User: Which sequence fits this backbone?
């Protein structure tokens, strides 16, 4: 049965091509239906295993590696510098027996040279269009330097800001992550993988990694099946539907099974049930790490478990290279699994057109192209979230003398964010530079950082910063995190501002000058106290190359902020996980909570309502998912069901009127949430189902229409089958996840 299904996969993998003659791999492969299969038949066991071996090449290539490539023992390479690419490719192309080209991969996460906001910032745009364009630009620049495979997008649902990799995520919501993740894949891969400037995407990390215990990176997860299917798998399902060429298995063990060896999720769900036709790559050295997990006794067993589970490419553990030969000698039935894995790799290379065009045709003129910088600026502008504004922003025309203070005002390296191997700080425009070069009106900029960098513990600059603030009309205080404080292996237990930044805020606020905080960080920070001391707060997740001009344009009113939070902001780290789409519990917290300090001394054991909240921090976040202000005001009205055909066509439509009642043109992200009130398993209090960015001029009104289908109202129950159940649904439309106009309907 298993052999049969593998043969089926093999035939699907190679079915689209018409045969041509020629035995070597670099003979014309496009249009050859049996090309991959024919090639496979010519391969020795060693050559097959070679296709599954990925290694990292940094700097000059050594003799050992050259030998391995000539012998067909390497299939793909990570981290190679462009200047070595063609020379190394020649070893495979000219000197190996079958001349199968190498595939070059790299972590191109949020831009190659032109750096876009970190993925969490891109998620704050709620704009699939700009996210797609960002990935397209990243692909174009990366392709022009020979890269054909990126390890992005990261689709791990992230509700824990302690986890450093929240920066690389699209936030806490499965629907938003699905829509934006699919957009990224479309951007990277273009219309066809074979097209110039298309690179293969990799949906990672499959699956659950974002739920790492305590937010500590690489940690175990404990996600039960219903939650796994409804929440954590959702963006990966969307990625498969969007045609992601590859998936990466995650480091974590879920409920005791490392994903690298999880046959149920990798082989049964992803490859069999979802019919994913592409390549599954392990994470870095993850096959070996199953030994440390305590899931494999030695490398031989680890290699066996990974192959059985469905890992096709071994990234950097050499377990396949060293162990598969003897494993197959002992059990020849493993050959079918091996052949399936090899065919997937050959197929990806074929789809990328590598057999025809193995060499890198560098086109440096595309790097940092003006249109790329323009898009990066737009993405950054849309990614900033206005958290507070007591009428300070946009800056009033009479405020000409601006004090620019803080460690992030002129930190070109740090505003780029995590996972930037190729973007250069010299090409980055900081807010200080953008404000100094601003031509829209005359400004006098007084710059005094106060702190050299965010972790600076020296007080020596504070006095000068205060003096500078005193000489200004208004203070712009730039705070946040250096890029190295978030990302992989950079988890934090405390989410307050690091270094003496809080002290800097306190000292500046004592001057009584109007104070605007601009924060650039890799995650939500617990800045309630600092927000109270400021008149306005603009929050950005590391905004990339063009962060400076984006900030200047927002502060000066050329751009009206429209970003919305893709993740709930906790008031205190102890509240984590705090997310909007939680279940209700049998004892939900009431609107009004008792205060810690109202409880009498020596009070008798008392119920205090016996509900689910913290005595000191309640249950609400500092800011809810979907939150973000504008310089204008939006009014929602007339929310209604315009068509209910759930039982016939399977569709239901809603409309709402949105009016701009303020004085600025602005863009609102209209959000539609749904609750399945009673079901066979308890459902979340609310789930985002649709959103739309709507731009309106002052006084303008628009009707916004959303259509849902039964699939949107369905969920995975105990049997893990997706179904819609009869009963009552509630729906809200509004400006964020905590409020909105409400309706009910029945299915
Ligand atoms: C480990 C990371 O978890 C993964 O996301 C990345 O793609 C690989 N290293 C390769 O750098």
Assistant:
């Amino acid at each position: 049965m298993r052999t049969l299904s593998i043969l089926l996969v093999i035939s699907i993998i190679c079915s689209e091509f018409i045969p041509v003659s020629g035995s070597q791999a670099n003979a014309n492969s496009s249009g050859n239906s049996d090309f991959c299969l024919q090639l496979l038949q010519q391969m020795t066991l060693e050559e097959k295993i070679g296709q599954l071996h990925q290694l990292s090449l940094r700097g000059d290539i050594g003799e050992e590696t050259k030998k391995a490539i000539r012998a067909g023992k390497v299939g793909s390479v990570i981290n190679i510098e462009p200047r070595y690419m063609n020379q190394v490719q020649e070893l495979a192309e000219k000197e190996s027996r079958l001349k199968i080209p190498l595939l070059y991969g790299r972590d191109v996460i949020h831009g190659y040279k032109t750096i876009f906001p970190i993925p969490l910032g891109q998620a704050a745009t709620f704009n699939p269009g700009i996210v797609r364009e960002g990935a397209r630009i990243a692909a174009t620049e990366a392709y022009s330097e020979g890269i054909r495979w990126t390890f992005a997008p990261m689709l791990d649902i992230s509700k824990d800001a302690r986890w450093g990799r929240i920066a690389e995520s699209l936030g806490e919501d499965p629907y938003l992550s699905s829509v934006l993740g699919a957009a990224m894949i479309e951007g990277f891969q273009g219309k066809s993988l074979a097209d110039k400037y298309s690179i293969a995407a990799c949906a990672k990390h499959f699956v659950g990694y974002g739920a790492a215990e305590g937010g500590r990176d690489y940690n175990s997860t404990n996600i039960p099946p219903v939650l796994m299917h409804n929440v954590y798998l959702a963006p990966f399902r969307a990625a498969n539907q969007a045609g992601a060429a590859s998936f990466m298995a995650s480091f974590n063990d879920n409920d005791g099974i490392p994903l690298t060896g999880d046959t149920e999720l990798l082989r049964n769900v992803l490859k069999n049930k979802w019919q994913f036709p592409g390549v599954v790559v392990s994470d870095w050295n993850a096959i070996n790490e199953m030994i440390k997990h305590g899931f494999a006794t030695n490398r031989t067993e680890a290699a066996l478990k990974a192959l059985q589970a469905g890992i096709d490419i071994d990234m950097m553990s050499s377990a396949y290279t060293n162990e598969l030969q003897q494993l197959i000698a002992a059990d020849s039935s493993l050959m079918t699994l091996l052949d399936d894995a090899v065919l997937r790799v050959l197929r990806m290379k074929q789809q990328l057109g590598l057999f025809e065009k193995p060499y890198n045709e560098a086109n440096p003129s595309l790097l940092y192209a003006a249109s790329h910088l323009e898009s990066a600026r737009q993405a950054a502008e849309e990614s900033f979230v206005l958290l507070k504004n007591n009428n300070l922003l946009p800056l009033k025309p009479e405020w000409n003398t601006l004090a620019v203070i803080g460690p992030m005002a002129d930190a070109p390296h740090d505003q780029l964010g995590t996972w930037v191997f190729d973007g250069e700080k010299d090409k980055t425009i900081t807010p200080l530079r953008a404000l100094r070069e601003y031509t829209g009106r005359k400004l006098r900029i007084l710059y005094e950082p106060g702190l050299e960098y965010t972790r600076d513990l020296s007080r020596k600059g504070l006095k000068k910063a205060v003096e500078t603030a005193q000489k200004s009309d208004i203070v712009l205080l730039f705070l946040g995190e250096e890029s190295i404080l978030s990302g992989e292996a950079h988890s934090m237990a405390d989410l307050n501002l690091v270094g003496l930044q809080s002290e800097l805020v306190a000292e500046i606020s004592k001057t009584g000058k109007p104070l605007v905080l601009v924060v650039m960080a890799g995650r939500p920070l617990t800045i309630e106290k600092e927000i109270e001391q400021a008149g306005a707060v603009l929050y950005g997740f590391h905004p990339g190359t063009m962060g400076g001009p984006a900030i200047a344009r927002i502060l000066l009113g050329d751009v009206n902020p429209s970003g919305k939070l893709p993740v709930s902001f906790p008031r205190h780290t102890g509240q984590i996980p705090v997310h909007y789409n939680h279940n209700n519990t049998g004892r939900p917290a009431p609107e009004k909570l008792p205060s810690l300090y109202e409880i009498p001394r020596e009070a008798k054991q008392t119920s205090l309502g016996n509900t689910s909240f913290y005595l000191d921090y309640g249950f609400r976040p500092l800011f809810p998912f979907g939150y973000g202000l504008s310089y204008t005001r939006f009014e929602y009205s007339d929310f209604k069901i315009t068509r209910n055909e759930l039982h016939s066509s399977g569709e239901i439509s809603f409309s709402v009127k949105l009016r701009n009642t303020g004085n600025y043109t602005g863009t609102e992200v209209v959000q539609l949430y749904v609750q399945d009130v009673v079901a066979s398993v308890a459902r979340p209090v609310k789930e985002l189902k649709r959103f739309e960015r709507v731009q309106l001029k002052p006084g303008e009104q628009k009707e916004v229409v959303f259509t849902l289908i039964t699939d949107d109202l369905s969920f995975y129950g105990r049997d893990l089958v997706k179904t819609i159940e009869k009963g009552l649904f509630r729906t809200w439309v509004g400006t964020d996840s905590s409020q909105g106009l409400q309706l009910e309907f029945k299915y």
Summary: The pocket of 1-deoxynojirimycin is lined by residues 107, 151, 204, 283-284, 488 (CB under 6 Å).
